[in-house]
Write a structure and sequence with these properties.
Strand order of the largest sheet: 1-2
Radius of gyration: 28 Å
Strand content: 5-15%
Distance between the termini: 55 Å
Length: 187
C-alpha cells in the first residue's frame, strides 16, 4: 500500500523516502496516544520523534516517524480523492469536513437517539414463514424459527414480531382501525 521509493515528487508533504520497517499493527489506543503527542510536541522540538515514541509504549522513534510519514501519505491520498475517508467502528466521534479540515466531532446524546435504526417492515412472505415456524416449533422458540424458517430475521426480531402478532390477535375486532400483516393467520 505504501511505496518503497521516494514520494517527494508525488506528495509534497513527504520529504524523505518511506521505508518499510517490520512493525506490529498499531492499535487504536496507540494511534490516539500518537495523535495526542503530535499535537502537544511541536515540530520545532529537538528529538521530536524520540519524545513522541516515549508517549507510545513499545514504539521506537523510527516506527513513530514511519507512522507519521504513512499518515501524511494517507492524507495526501484522501485529499486527492484516491481513497475515501476512513471511519473506524470504535471511534467515539465522526469525521466531518469543515473549511477543508478533517476533525473529530462528538455526537450529542440527542443526535445518537435520533439516529436509532428504524425497523424494516416484515413482508407478507416473511410473515407467512413466521406462521409456518410458529406451527412447527411452537410459541417461544424464536431462535429455531429464526434459524430454520424466517432466516432473514434474528431471534429478537422474530420475538418482537410474535409479540405484536399475538397482541393483534387478542384485540377486539372493532378496535382495529386498519388492516395489518398481523391479520394474516393462515398460510
Amino acid at each position: 500500500m505504501y511505496p518503497d521509493k521516494d514520494n517527494s515528487d508525488s506528495n509534497p508533504f513527504i520529504t524523505q523516502p518511506i521505508t518499510r520497517v517490520l512493525t506490529t499493527q498499531w492499535t487504536r489506543l496507540e494511534d490516539k496516544l500518537f495523535e495526542e503527542a503530535l499535537v502537544e510536541i511541536s515540530e520545532a522540538t529537538p528529538d521530536r520523534w524520540q519524545k513522541i515514541a516515549e508517549r507510545v509504549p513499545g514504539k521506537s522513534p523510527v516506527e513513530v516517524k514511519q507512522h507519521y510519514d504513512m499518515l501524511l501519505y494517507d492524507l495526501y491520498q484522501i485529499e486527492n480523492g484516491r481513497v475515501e475517508i476512513p471511519i473506524y467502528s470504535d471511534d467515539s466521534g465522526v469525521l466531518t469536513s469543515w473549511d477543508g479540515q478533517i476533525c473529530f466531532a462528538s455526537k450529542s446524546k440527542q443526535q445518537m437517539e435520533n439516529e436509532r435504526k428504524k425497523g424494516t417492515p416484515w413482508t407478507e412472505e416473511e410473515h407467512k414463514l413466521f406462521l409456518i415456524g410458529l406451527h412447527k416449533f411452537g410459541r417461544g422458540d424464536w431462535r429455531s424459527i429464526s434459524r430454520n424458517v424466517v432466516v432473514t430475521r434474528t431471534p429478537t426480531q422474530v420475538a418482537s414480531h410474535a409479540q405484536k402478532y399475538f397482541l393483534r390477535q387478542n384485540s377486539v375486532k372493532k378496535e382495529r382501525k386498519r388492516s395489518s400483516i398481523h391479520d394474516i393467520t393462515t398460510v
